[in-house]
Amino acid sequence: MRHLHASSRSIARSLTGVAAALTLLAGTAHADATLDKIKQRGKVTIGVLANGGPFGSIDPATQQLVGWNPELARALAKGLGVEAELVQVQTATRTQFLQAGKVDLLIASMELNPDRAEILGYAPTPFFRVGGTAAVRKDSGITQWSDLRGKAVCVSQGSSFAKPLTTEYGAQVQGYKSSSDSLLALRGGNCVAAVHDSTLIHPLVGKNAEWAQYAAPITTEILPAPSVVWTRKGEADTIAAVDKVVQKWHRSGWLIATEKRLGITPANPYLVELQAKLKTASR
User: Fold this and answer.
1) Shortest CA distance to 176 belongs to which of 148, 157, 204, 151?
2) Whole-prediction pTM value?
């Protein structure tokens, strides 16, 4: 009987080991489930941010999403060999959209930082680099970040710029649902500056007649960081497939050409640097 009990224990241990292995395999399969679903349905759902300007807006004639973020999303779908379904997201909720499975990927002006990398996955090759810029009235007297100390500053809810504005520069940060709401608050006199991605602010104050009384006088950017395509955590196959497409954009010069065609100024020197780096690495 003792021998039988020992055999039973041995079998139990073996079954436990098999169960653990199956659990591990299931976890691995789950990690790559997004790419499988994308291929099976022949479509990838990508969340994009469209705050206006060349980086993303809605064409009033067609009601279609146009600009840098939407163009990259469609090109990414093409590179993956599937159709693109674009979903407009907001700054405050874009992460939740991805985590909840409402979108497969995000190209939504989300720069890489440690906090985001803790909870999301991402393709390691960036497609841009951007930091925060302040829009202020030309008569505000504000010329540097330290001038914002003790003053009300508008940002979007969930903006990564809120923390350094508060801790490093002593600003009184006010969060708004979207960048549009934040900019309206600036024009309404609720704050002395609105801080958003430089890619939104520069075209606005440089080309829009309605913003003729405003400027972006602070020459340095706050929290400059690379822009990446975001995935859910642990989706290794999806990340690898997306990164392969992004690297092709750089090597072919497509990103630089698209930036020029869309009239994005000032031109981002980071794209030229990264193209040269990737071309050298591929030799």
Assistant:
1) 157
2) 0.73
